[in-house]
Amino acid sequence: MAVNLRLITLPGACALTASLVLGGCASPDPEARFDEYLETLDSGTTDTGVTDTGGTDTGVDPDTGGTDTGGDAGACIERRANAEGVWFMAISASIDRENPLYLEVTVTQDGDTLDFSFQPLSTDIATDPETFEQTPRENPRQPVGDPVVVTGVTYEADGSFELLAENLVVSLEANPITPSQITGDVELYGSFLNDDTSCGRVGGTVQGTTTVPLSNPQGEPASDFAMFRLTDEIAATDFDPVLYTCGQVGEVEPPCDPAGGGGGGGEECIERRGTAGGVWFMAISASIDRENPLYVEVTIDQDGDTLDFSFQPLSTDIATDPETFEQTPRENPRQAVGDPVVVTGVTFEADGTFEVTATDLVVSRDANPITPSQITGNVEFYGTILNDDVSCGRVGGTVQGTTTVPLSNSQGEPASDYAMFRIPDGGSATDFDPVQYTCGMVGNVDPACDPVE
Fold first, then answer.
1. Alpha carbons 442 and 392: distance in angstroms, whole number
2. Residues with Cβ < 8 Å from 17, sequence gap 6 or more?
3. pLDDT tens-place string over residues 165-192
4. pLDDT by residue (tens digit) across 116-145?
């Protein structure tokens, strides 16, 4: 089984807390923590889950590798999408996030086995190796050099894969950072989110004028990739801007007008509007306290391109005494508490995206994972249904309790996150452990049971 790069809820005090308006280690002085957060907002440095290595925290447990096949659901959700075809890949190295390496990736699928061919592509900008003068290429993103082929890669039932591309040679025309040839051994830890989108983490090292690690000092992958299907109508040059992390793929749009207006590289768009109707388990991670999310059961009714939402807060896993802050595990966690908020008539775009505001959402103290008090708020969701079973996106707005806490940053942009997973027949919200709560995690989610069984 491939190692899954996802957050593991570790035992200990911080893992058994419920301390904020939307999630964190309990503190007997919550207002001090709010003040610290508000100071962070004013400084414009709201935490986005990025580590000091420059990469999104994978949450990988170095001892277990993050693999978990537990859960009580009777059947697994099959997440093995159609990987066969030609893909446009962008690899973002932790040393230089915003100048990704481009590759054309050809995947051949035979059941649960994948063969990959990695062909480097020329950059958008040509850099003179002597003067470092930069000029736009007349014909960018074209194959340069020879491909590297990797065969016999296991394709897990949860949609994940793991491979090592050895001796990958990238010529100076394809090197987005320095105008020189580089070679390296590149490790990919990825998932096919649906038939048209893949993303994951990147590790290994590359060598040019110097050795550049793609992993962090602990040997864990610290770089990122995103990958999108190419068709007869859609070429590598149609992707602008280029997306290169799991945290961005929820924002991807087809390279043309979903209404049929054309543009991009072809007349037809990739239809990304999956099946949204059903009951979902949602985890909302507030930027003030990332690791203790608010749980919500979301019921969606879908009528074509229109969605109706019902947001029902759920009780936390840990009960916190409002006076002593003593914490004890709940005997019956993740149960409906309080009344739901219903929002109707939400537009479901052809690219799978939606925007919805849950006005006057009331979260009782039994559902508040941060402080043992009731909170209310207007919560904005900017999300994408990635496939029929997974959704993720950004969260904005404000919540009010003992003080007002913004879910957006000081510029009014969403600064918090959510992830949402379909609850299958016979399953429940308690089957999801550990809980995923960002787009950067959902590519690594396991079904709530062992796919082999």
1. 7
2. 24, 25, 26, 292, 318, 320, 327
3. 999 999 989 998 888 899 999 999 998 8
4. 999 999 999 998 888 888 899 999 999 999
More confident residue, 18 or 27: 27
Per residue in 405-414, is it b (16+ CB within 10 Å) or e — as a string?
Answer: bbbbbeeeeb
Q: For residue 236, is pLDDT > 50?
A: yes
Q: Could you give the CA distance from residue 37 to residue 236 in angstroms, rounded to a whole number?
A: 41
Domain residue ranges of the chain, discontinuous segments joined by +? 85-249
CATH class of residue range 85-249: mainly beta
